[in-house]
Amino acid sequence: MTEREPSEEYLDGYAAILTDVCATGRGLSREERDALRSRGERAAEAGLGLRALVRAHLSAAERVRPGLPRAAADHLLSAVGQAVDAFAEGHERAQRLAVRQEEAARREFIDDLLYGRSDLGRLAERAERFGLLLSHAHAVAVAQGREPYSDGYEVTRTVEASLATRFGNRRILLTTKDGRLICVAPADQPDVLAHFAKQAYAATDGGQVAVGRAHPGAGGVVHSYEEALNALDLAGRMNLTDPVLYAADLLVYPVLTRDRQAMADLVRTVLGPLQEARGGAKPLLDTLTAYFDAGCVTAQAARRLSLSVRAMTYRLERIHRLTGADPGDPVQRYTLQTAVVGARLLDWPDQAL
To answer: What is the number of other CB atoms lying within 10 angstroms of the CB of residue 313?
Structure first.
């Protein structure tokens, strides 16, 4: 709120109240307190700062003091204290209400922005109030940790303070949604999201951050946000442990699952025979996953699974016999690896296809 010199209208009747209270030695009546609270509320709504208003009340009391009898003047300080307390209560109540209304408006805007539920033209107008120019391209980064976070949490405040210190008044929006930290930044300022990712990873004690691609317009924010969420979901299913994930680096996975039925058919056809093995398909599927993640280096894959090289080799041979596909053959390896990726994306064999 912009602070300016208080208007005399908020002091109307104040001197008369002081004079009467001091003359009778009584306390302020309920009606007088209510009137002062009401003036305090109106002063806050008009944008007047409380400090200047308190000074004005003290100055008015000084002007009243010379006209009071000596005995009555002894009650002046108590009367001023009661009056200012009532006035400040009304002022603070109005400010709290304004803050709640601002928070509600901000939360409504964020929900509309991230879900694309509002008219895009109207959304762009509202965005300027919160520091965004939706006529430009934006990218969204989403961070999640071991626990959910909200706007008032220490983690959120820490990341916000770091961004404010580093980038000042750049057009950045930091918020929370569904327990995650979210940063929206202009596409031409990749350093903002890089800094956010670093700070969020540290503040969440080793959480994970996903960064969507930059897209233009209000709808672009939604698109980038959804890409970041999908990257986090993909990381969980594919056991991707990188602290920062970029949606641009993971585009192959949406392509693979675009035709879910075809991928499911591939998994059933290529990997289905593994279910005939003792212990089911899971151990052999984990073997293939480790083998491909290790760049098809048998010794390295064996270490990842805490197996001997001999045991690892036996498992690969077993897979070859069951599926008819040789993990060591470049052509057959591609089919197997694609099927393994599909199994992880479709959560097979835990989920039936």
So the answer is: 14
> What are residue 148's phi and psi, to 5 degrees?
-75, 150
Q: What is the DSSP string of 172-203?
A: -EEEEETTEEEEEEETT-HHHHHHHHHHHHHH
User: For residue 323, what are its two tokens?
Assistant: 């599926």
Contact 304, 310 (CB under 8 A): no
Cα 280–chain centre separation: 41
For residue range 43-55, list pLDDT tens digits in order: 988 888 888 899 8
Write the CB contacts of 47 (distance below 8 Å, at least 6 apart in sequence): 1, 2, 3, 4
How far, in Å, are 5, 32, 54, 59, 71 from residue 14 at the CA level?
Answer: 17, 9, 12, 11, 20
Q: If DSSP codes are grouped into helix, strand and coil, which group holds residue 268?
A: helix
Report phi then psi at 12, rounded to 5: -60, 130
| Distance between CA atoms of residues 309 and 279, nearest Å | 20
Read off the pLDDT of each residue in 152-167 and give the average, rounded to a whole number: 90
What sections of 135-281 are H helices per DSSP?
Answer: 154-167, 190-203, 217-238, 252-257, 260-271
